[in-house]
Amino acid sequence: MAKNAPVKHIAIAGNIGSGKTTLTTLLAKHFGWEPHFEDVENNPYLYDFYQDMPRWSFNLQVFFLNSRFRQIIDIQKGEKTVIQDRTIDEDARIFAPNLHAMGLMSSRDFDNYTSLFETIHSMVSPPDLVIYLKASIPTLVNQIQRRGREYEDNLRLDYLRRLNEYYEAWSSQYSAGKMLVIDVDNCNFADNNEDLGDVVNRVNAELYGLF
Predict the structure, then answer these.
(1) CATH number of the CATH domain containing 120
(2) What's the pTM?
(3) Do the domain assignments include residue 2?
């Protein structure tokens, strides 16, 4: 990012239950950014996916890919600074490979999906800053249970654990731009204003060099 280029796109990455939506809301309010959330309520595949992952995994991933692509196009065309709940990279580098590795997406579907992602990826710019919410399995499970989404009742621990392994690998190799890692186990930004203030200061430092 050029020194004085306007900041247009911040994205929050993290496993299911890590606090992406909460932090997106809090940072949007603090900085006056426009939040873009995952369209969970209007997703026609999500409930079916949690009931029968092998049948619906490809459909779900294509829906997310299209939704995220549309968001990024809108961000790049628009004038506002946007903070996005989840990145397009997570769909293709974490969720789809994990489904494939677990035998929940066929190789034929995975290859088709990956090819589609590479085409789309070549047409968009990376975020100015990715904020990665790193969390242990107990923290994720606790936060998933707290929010009580019915379709997440069937989430398997091994599924969350494997996703965490993919997140660790992806975040350690991420080179497309700036990444800020927040340790959610030791940073309760949802309930603690001091912790939230610390996150805000770190975001300021990454984006604007302010401390």
Answers:
(1) 3.40.50.300
(2) 0.90
(3) no
**How many domains does the chain fold into?**
1
* pLDDT one-digit tens code per residue, 34-77: 999 887 778 899 889 988 999 999 999 999 999 999 999 999 99
DSSP H helices in the chain: 20-31, 46-51, 53-77, 88-90, 96-101, 107-121, 137-147, 157-173, 193-208
Catalytic residue among 85, 89, 91, 109: 85
Are 60 and 52 in contact, with CB atoms under 8 Å apart? Answer: no
Active site residue 85: yes
CA distances from residue 34 to 9, 30, 85, 121, 187 in whole angstroms, order as listed = 10, 11, 11, 23, 24
Q: What are the pLDDT digits (tens) for 68-86?
A: 999 999 999 999 999 999 9
By residue range, what is the domain housing residue 37?
Answer: 9-208
